[in-house]
Amino acid sequence: MVIIDNEDIIGILRNRKNQTSTSLGFVTDKQTMDDLNILGKYKNNSVYSIFNKVITVGGEKLLDNMFQHPLIDDVKINERSKRFAYFGDREFKFPFNAEQVTEMQNYLSMSGTGSFFGMYTSTFRKKWLDYLGLPTEYNLVKTGLYATIKVLKELKAFINAIEVQDPKNLYQEEINAANKVFADKRIVLLLNEDEKQPISIFKVAKYCHLLKNVLWQEMKTVEDMIYKFDVAIAISTVAKQRGFSYAKALPGTSNTVRIEDLSHPGIRKAVHNSLYINQEHNIMFLTGANMAGKSTFMKSFGISQYLAHMGFPVPARELEFSVKDGIYTSINVPDNLNMGYSHYYAEVLRVKKIALEVSESKNLIVIFDELFKGTNVKDAYDATLSVTEAFGENRNCSFIISTHIIEVGEELKRCKNLQFKYLPTIMNGVVPTYTYKLQTGITTDRHGMMIIENEKILDIILSNAELSL
To answer: How confident is the model over 382-427, as pLDDT tens digits?
Structure first.
């Protein structure tokens, strides 16, 4: 407790600012992202890897941006969810070949010269090099132009199919912009070209000038539309395959989280749990034996909240939540040898950082797993009790706090805004088994020594000791 007092964590929480939150974006940090395993294209079982089923490079960049910047506007969140869900309810598949989209992107990104004469001169130079046995540059132009023609034809057919099936679809604004491009007489001539037949050098230069100089902004709009379709179809497919649902976002003025049948997205056939947090009971105090599933449950909750703020499908049957300003977790806090921090001091500094964020009157989601497990039982008891009570004075945040020190729970019953949940252990003789189902109350399970005895650790040590004599 001396270190807690020295860092003035209780004072920080009890002297929080009273102004309304003015957050400009969803706030979090690397520790939280690592705790929840959110990012990482090649990271094993990351949340990102679950959803990264896009086809195009541009689609992947858009997906990256969405993962890096969750939303804090309930209207925008719900609108994005509806646009994703639109494709989940229909049998549309992404119609584009990834290689051709990349060739189109590379072709359109080649700098134009600004004038037709300049474009013709540049194209003729490349063609002349082709005659001289150096075909690379001209082949890139031809390949890119043919790919662009094919992709534009496929896009036109795709949006026509959407309009025929659903004239009042959620993408009509983008479709109207694309139809305006396709109505341009110059684009009509372009799309009438047979990409299987050679195009004269004059036409190649003319089309390059048209696409790269005259209609470059329109082509950028077309590219962006393709990437949006790529992401939306990929996300809706993941939701359908995994049985995820879309959350309903509520204004941030309330403090509500209601989840039915929550599970961890990285665990197939996971056990589901339901929970309800509101203004009157905004702290869940979670107990349970080691291996009972506390960490997995808390990670499931954190992941679902992060995805919900992105407007992405969540691993739950139903989820309704008030929009928050951000999320912070303390689950796998490492020590810091470079700074000379012990594991316990690193835990204290982590709690202090989160306390400072809460004191700024931000509406946050906060998750603490096994508070102060790096110190002795007496200090951990005192610190957990004091810090939980101090956090409990803040009613605009949602907290889940777990501990292995179950005696703290009895003292915390005096805090009226706490709800007590536990994950039980069922004894099968001397072998503990786990239901992973959330129950109301405080656990009385203590099976640490029983597990040690089941693993015969003492027998191994004593046997080795006898052999060494």
So the answer is: 888 999 999 988 889 999 999 888 889 888 999 899 999 999 988 8
The Cβ-side half-sphere exposure at 58, using a 13 Å CA radius, reads 23
DSSP annotation of 340: T
> What would the pLDDT profile of 117-168 be if each residue is shown by its tens digit?
788 788 888 888 878 888 888 889 889 999 999 999 999 999 999 999 888 8
Strand partners, 341: 336
Residue 359 corresponds to which amino acid? S
Beta-sheet pairing, 364-368 with 398-402: parallel
Phi and psi at 390, nearest 5°, equal -65, -45
The residue behind tokens 């403090």 is 255
Which residues are within 8 A (CB) of 306 and not within 5 positions of it... i.e. 6 or more apart?
Answer: 28, 36, 38, 47, 70, 327
Neighbours of 240 (CB within 10 A): 14
DSSP result, 197-234: S---HHHHHHHHHIIIIITHHHHHHHHHHHHHHHHHHH
Helix axes 136-165, 116-131, angle to 10 degrees: 120
- The residue written with tokens 């600004």 in the block is 114
CA pair distance 179, 272, nearest whole angstrom: 46
> Rounded to whole angstroms, how far apart are CA atoms 320 and 325?
16
